[in-house]
Amino acid sequence: MKRIAITFSILLILFLGSREGISQQAFTLDPNPNLKVSGTSSIHDWHMESKKATGKAEMTLGANGAETIKSLTITMPVESLKSGKGQMDTNAYKALKSDKFPDIQFVLTEVISINGSQIKAKGKLTFTGSTKVVSIDVTQKPVGNGVEFSGTLPIKFSEFNVAPPTAIFGTIKTGDALQLSFTVIFK
């Protein structure tokens, strides 16, 4: 009897272990993400957009999108952010120290909950050499053989030891508060 129980336990462990291994799938970031940084200044609101980033994820998909997310990373080159105004871009790259720290990166550290189309998660956000753990609410929806994630994240320059950019000898000042917005697809 003990032999049957041990054999059954071993088979159960092998089945569950192999099922977990099979269910996790590797995904890569679609080459056309929509990433946006927006903020305020002493004269007007502003935004910069990027359509360039790389990323990878390991997750399982179901009818509503991701059911589990084992890992997820997105890396965006700082100098892919464009405002349409050359001097503003130059000031932003200087403030973000793009010559020393060329990338902004998000690395998922914890999925708190997945409830249908709503995900609550934590991750490490890194830019200008500073890393901060952030909490983020994400909306998801299935797209073809992948999933689309979208959301916004309020942060501050000062949280990352960055002096907000200025222009025209300091007469135009950028506010400390920023909003990061994203819509990305992993396939």
Can you describe this structure?
The chain is α+β, with helices and mostly antiparallel strands. The protein is 17% helix and 56% strand. It has two helices and eleven strands; from the N terminus they run αβββββαββββββ. It has helices at 2-23, 86-95; strands at 25-28, 34-41, 46-50, 54-62, 65-77, 103-115, 118-127, 130-143, 146-156, 166-167, 172-186. Strands 1, 2, 3, 4, 5, 6, 7, 8, 9, 10 and 11 form an eleven-stranded antiparallel beta sheet that branches. The longest helix is centred in the first third of the chain and has 22 residues, at 2-23. The model is unreliable at 1-22 (pLDDT under 50).
Notable characteristics:
187 residues; alpha+beta; eleven-stranded antiparallel beta sheet; 2 helices; 11 strands
What is the number of strand segments?
Answer: 11
Show unreliable segments.
1-22
Query: What is the radius of gyration?
Result: 21 Å
The share of residues in helices is 10-25%
Number of helices: 2
**Main pleated-sheet profile:** 11 strands, antiparallel
- Return the average pLDDT rounded to an integer: 85
Distance between the termini: 48 Å
Strand coverage percent: over 45%
Element-by-element helix/strand order: HEEEEEHEEEEEE
Class by alpha and beta content: alpha+beta
Shape: elongated
